[in-house]
Write a structure and sequence with these properties.
Elements: E1 3-9, E2 12-18, E3 24-25, H1 47-51, H2 56-60, E4 63-64, E5 67-68, H3 70-78, H4 92-98, H5 108-117, E6 123-124
Antiparallel strand pairs: 1-2, 3-6, 4-5
Length: 135
């Protein structure tokens, strides 16, 4: 299997060619769309789901165990399921979420958002893409 994923991070384009099917998480049954995080993460694969009994931002309407999620709040106010359906993706607020050192990613969430906007029921696990060299 060969997949091309185009994502952006800090204004740079990242073109990733994924040749290992194991890097793409595809469920045997349909992915649970209630567990699509509005920011592009997939809550069904999140370590905090069980640890904190978190049901994800779709179910909690952005009121997470750690506080209110501004990304989710924005998506809810716009009446869209996730940020991939927004004409401004990736906006500054979303980019800030992507860039968080502890909870950021290397383009996986943006790739997920674009795939979900196309109607795909698959996701890329956070931490799959290598970190870009910042040399």
């Amino acid at each position: 299997m060969r997949r091309l994923v185009l994502a952006t991070r800090n204004g740079e384009s990242l073109l990733r060619i994924l040749e290992q099917p194991s890097l793409i998480e595809e469920e045997d049954s349909e992915m649970d769309r209630r567990l699509i995080a509005r920011c592009g993460a997939y809550c069904g694969d999140c370590e905090w789901r069980d640890k904190m009994n978190c049901s994800g931002c779709q179910m909690t309407r952005g009121k997470m165990f750690w506080g209110e999620c501004l990304v989710a709040k924005c998506s809810i106010e716009k009446g869209i399921e996730h940020c991939g359906l927004c004409s401004r993706v990736p906006c500054d607020m979303l980019q800030e979420a992507f860039d968080q050192p502890e909870h950021g990613d290397n383009g996986e969430r943006l790739a997920n958002l674009k795939a979900w906007a196309r109607g795909e029921d698959s996701y890329i696990k956070l931490g799959t893409f290598p970190s870009p060299d910042r040399g």
